[in-house]
Amino acid sequence: MKQQLEDIVREMRRRGTPYQEAVDEFKKAFLSVVLRANNGNQSKSAKQLGVHRNTLTRTILAMHIDLTAMRPSARRRPPQAELQVLPPKKERLP
User: How many domains are there within the chain?
Assistant: First the structure.
């Protein structure tokens, strides 16, 4: 694994990738792998990463990581507002 990481670093260096961009890409990829393994569950992922859940949430937002693709859609319920079907408003007669 160390050799693969070194190969990636060499390729990024060859392309002229700035240090901070390389760190951000690694961080985003690392977090995405852990989040995907936990179906987007931030609490489980935070425990595995050894960080506080709030720290992970802030990092996810800052790095623009999309959790919707990582979560199983069949289990997700629509928001309460979509569950409630309101009757149409009655028109007032003059």
Answer: 1
For residues 72 and 10, what is the distance between their CA atoms, to the nearest angstrom? 36
CATH of the domain at 55: 1.10.10
Contact (Cβ atoms closer than 8 angstroms) between residue 34 and residue 48: yes
pLDDT tier for residue 87 given thresholds of 50, 70 and 90? low
Domain that holds residue 60: 23-71
Say if 49 falls within a structural domain. Answer: yes
Tell me what the mean pLDDT of segment 2-11 comes to: 92
Cα-based angle 55, 59, 65 (whole degrees, multiple of 5)? 140
Q: What per-residue confidence (pLDDT) applies to 15? A: 95
Rounded to two decimals, what is the model's pTM?
0.69
